[in-house]
Write a structure and sequence with these properties.
The protein contains nine helices and nine strands. With 256 residues, the protein is α+β, with helices and mostly antiparallel strands.
Length: 256
């Protein structure tokens, strides 16, 4: 079964910055509000507002995002979702999902990162056929009993459950996510995180140090970009190689 990308720990550090967390939530809300700004009749918008509040996004930010998406703020530029996909170092499939109010800025930035670490080109649908679009629900195993949750999963349409470290991971289809999330919340379970993920059908292993170094630095560059919502890859790497690369980056950070 697919596992979290090996650069997840570095990705989490980058995404921990409040400014980016707030910005991503606001852009998602604005995008959803474009079709219907009323959360009572727009289930997607309602779910995004709920997730934003769980991430401590201020109500003022949420209100501004809704006004932006619904054109109530006539001076605001509308948000676009643009997806780039191609191959990363080691012929790893990569998807870069962006949310932007300036397409030219985003295209230039993404092109620069691709060309710096690999190639200067990409194509639509180049690799997305290798991935399934799923929601991943994470529950803290230290707060809740895994066996009990496993029993409850069989009462839902969830597709997969596993115990990974300190987290219980439940995978659902896009269509069943809202119902399953509400099911566990109504049972008194605290959802640690819920994210839409691209889950690869197959993985590609990186075994060479140089390719691993380029790959990790490329992912870091994408995740640090203000317009990148998330990246998805199908890579696998040996933990020893990952640690070797991370130690090298740490020691040579002044050169990179």
């Amino acid at each position: 079964m697919w596992r979290w990308p090996v650069v997840q720990q570095r990705k989490n550090v980058v995404n921990a910055a409040k400014w980016k967390v707030f910005a991503v939530h606001s852009k998602l809300i604005a995008l959803a509000a474009q079709s219907n700004p009323d959360p009572e009749t727009n289930a997607k918008l309602e779910a995004l507002i709920s997730k934003a509040k769980k991430a401590w996004v201020p109500n003022d930010n949420i209100d501004r995002a809704i006004k932006r998406g619904s054109w109530a703020d006539k001076d605001a530029t509308q948000i676009q979702e643009i997806v780039y996909e191609w191959y990363a170092p080691g012929w790893v499939a990569i998807i870069v999902n962006t949310l932007t109010d300036n397409k030219n800025r985003t295209v230039s930035s993404i092109r620069h990162i691709f060309s710096k670490y690999w190639w200067n080109m990409w194509e639509s649908w180049a690799v997305s056929w290798m991935f399934k679009h799923k929601w991943v629900i994470l529950i803290d195993v230290e707060k809740h009993n895994y066996d009990k949750i496993e029993e409850l999963v069989f009462e839902t349409n969830a597709e997969y459950i596993s115990l990974e470290g300190s987290e219980i991971k439940i995978i659902t289809s896009v269509e069943d996510f809202n119902e399953i999330e509400k099911f566990f919340e109504q049972k008194g379970y605290e959802i640690k995180k819920a994210e839409l993920e691209y889950i690869p059908d197959n993985t590609t292993e990186i075994t060479e140090f140089d390719k691993a170094l380029k790959f990790i630095k490329m992912i870091d560059a994408f995740e640090e970009d203000e317009d990148v919502q998330f990246t998805a890859t199908n890579e696998t790497m040996d933990d020893e190689l990952v640690n070797e690369v991370l130690e090298f980056i740490e020691k040579n950070s002044f050169k990179t």
